[in-house]
Design a protein that fits this description.
The protein contains 15 helices and no strands. By secondary structure, it is mainly alpha-helical. The longest helix has 27 residues.
Length: 363
């Protein structure tokens, strides 16, 4: 992969820089990160040519093993933790107005939820213990650690079926989907973990139960942080738990918005034996918008990710036959927040793609 393309994967670092810069600018400067994500990125996606190139087959193994790409994701973990601790300091000592607090909190969520969960998603698919640990740390920052279980052992098995909480159904608006996915995803993770423990003859009420760990660790983290900052500032910093919870909800809501647009209306056929057909690049929406793909470590090449979950982000392929989103995630998330606009834009695209794809498949 060209060096210029490698540099593009550092673009995620723009968000922490803008977040901190916005704070020191003050006032409406607090929204500079929001303007970048939801205005400038979609604009650049529109102006910059889409990237549909794939890594040549003979180079896939080499590129997949390049340490550079792993270092970029590892480095993000430390950047995010540093920014989060810095944000804790500001919340502890600054008297924000209500709208400044909202801007600061949602700006933090764009970092922990927009980029942090994306990196956690990438690392959580890896077998190495260190990568899995980093994924859990990032998910702890948004109180969504059960995603580590549900995504890998649930979503990837049941994607594009009625059994999958994270697959949005045709005609389902984002807000209804959010409630169903958040609730059923958490319950599903408990069920999956209970099944794992049962196979190993481990009682459910055990510290080896990852769901107990994943539920308690964010609470323990913010209690310790609040205690430490309260001692440092010699007062009870009650604002910290509120800030942490609010940015967590906004952060994992970004994840659910991404889930919503990645799988809207996708369905796998149920076979005569009761199982579903194999997951293919036809079962996820794809997007090859260059700027947002750099920002999100090619998460938008989601069709290949679901067809080949083991592949690292730098070698994910584009497939012409996959359903294609009309814009990158930054723009499509905003569209999803307005159901009438979403349905007017996406339902005809979905219908046209289905007719074209499945008509050709039977010819």
């Amino acid at each position: 992969m060209k060096n210029l393309k490698k540099i593009g994967f550092f673009s995620a670092l723009i968000l922490p820089v803008l977040f901190i810069l916005g704070f020191y600018l003050g006032g409406i400067g607090l929204f500079i990160i929001h303007v970048f994500v939801f205005v400038l990125v979609p604009l650049m996606d529109f102006l910059v040519k889409k990237d549909s190139t794939n890594v040549p087959k003979e180079f896939i193994s080499k590129v997949a093993k390049e340490r550079f790409y792993k270092v970029v994701t590892f480095g993000w973990v430390y950047v995010q933790l540093a920014v989060l601790i810095w944000a804790f300091f500001q919340v502890s000592k600054v008297d924000f107005s209500w709208w400044e607090w909202l801007a600061f909190t949602s700006g933090m969520a764009l970092i922990t939820g927009g980029i942090g969960i994306t990196v956690a998603h990438e690392l959580g698919h890896k077998a190495e213990k260190l990568e899995q640990l980093y994924a859990k740390i990032l998910l702890m920052c948004v109180c969504y650690m059960h995603f580590f279980i549900e995504h890998n052992r649930g979503h990837h098995v049941r994607v594009a079926t009625p059994e999958d909480p994270a697959t949005s159904r045709f005609g389902e608006n984002f807000y209804r989907f959010w409630f169903r996915s958040v609730k059923d995803g958490y319950l599903s993770a408990w069920k999956l973990e209970a099944e794992r423990l049962k196979k190993k003859s481990i009682p459910l009420a055990s510290w080896k139960n990852q769901m107990i760990q994943f539920t308690l660790l964010p609470i323990i983290f913010i209690v310790l942080v609040t205690g430490g900052f309260s001692i440092f500032f010699d007062r009870l910093i009650w604002e910290l738990p509120l800030f942490f919870l609010a940015q967590s909800i906004l952060g994992f809501s970004l994840l659910e918005a991404v889930n919503y647009l990645e799988h809207y209306g996708m369905e796998r056929k149920k076979l005569a034996n009761g199982f579903y057909e194999k997951v293919t690049p036809l079962h996820s929406w794809n997007a090859n918008h260059t700027v947002s793909n750099f920002l999100l470590f090619q998460l938008q090449r989601h069709s290949d990710h679901h067809a080949h979950a083991y592949k690292p982000y730098q070698v994910l392929n584009h497939y012409e036959e996959s359903p294609q989103l009309p814009a990158g995630y930054s723009a499509m998330i905003l569209v999803a927040f307005f159901p009438p606009l979403w349905f007017a834009m996406m339902d005809p695209l979905l219908q046209n793609w289905r007719e074209k794809t499945f008509r050709e498949s039977v010819q």
